[in-house]
Hints:
- This protein has helices at residues 9-22, 63-71, 126-144, 170-186, 201-233, 237-251, 255-264, and strands at residues 26-33, 38-46, 56-58, 74-75, 97-104, 110-118, 154-157, 160-163.
- 42% of the residues lie in helices and 17% in strands.
- It has two domains: 9-144, GAF domain (Beta-Lactamase), CATH 3.30.450; 154-277, no CATH class.
- The chain is of the alpha+beta class.
- A six-stranded antiparallel β-sheet has the order 3-2-1-6-5-4, with helices on both faces. Strands 7-8 form a two-stranded antiparallel sheet.
Amino acid sequence: MHLVSLHDEVIDAAVSCAASLLGMEVVYFGSIDHAADTYRFERVIGDSETVSEGAVVDFATTFCRRMIDGAGPTTCDAATHPVYGTVTLLPGTEVVSYAGVPVVGPDGTVIGTLCGFDRRRVEIGEHVVGVLTELAGLISAAVATAPIPDAVEIRRTPAGWLVGGAVHEPSLTSAMVLADLLAEDLGAPRRPERPSTDLDETALLRASIAQLEHALAARVLVEQAIGVLAERNGLAPREAFESLRKVARRGGIRVHALAHDVVASVTDRSVTLPAELTRH
């Protein structure tokens, strides 16, 4: 198994947030191929001679397998741990501390893990594990909402027009949509209204997670609007997105807010759209 959309901005941001959160030597997201019992390091942050992006190892030999089997999400003394002490994944590298949580697919299957390790003693509290779990959930959502590369379909449903997978340049269009939404949501630091004192690092990470989750949900709505405009105006999806973005920025509104109106216009004739989106 190879997960789709692994270079999705949301996944990259989630792993980056995990690295800041854990403060460990190496932090990574990896996928599990249960049929072959292998583990693939998909995104890696940190410097390690034994862990690199794209590397595939025997899943049975990993810390992550022990974690999923119930060894617990953290240890700061792996060598003496009754379960983690048997890991042989990194010969010649004395891992002292490990932290990891599962990444679960839509059907409840564990499809990967979000983890970190260090050769130093790093104690990880329960609240940190909680934030790490939220980040893993963000990766799960990103994988679940990724476009299907080989499908070609625009169809009408009771909820409006839906883009099922690709029509033209699917990966590029989806990436443009998400990048635009992330730019809206994360382009400038948001100053919290309350409390008046500065948020600690964990709270800031939680705020970033919420913003990323919002952008991910908004992408689905924007891609529905792209389907509507593509079908209605005879445009390629990329052209439809560019017109949506252009009109939104000219009117000083968010892309996903305008996308909501476009989708709503399919079933609600009272919704009025800017002329640029209906001229065809």
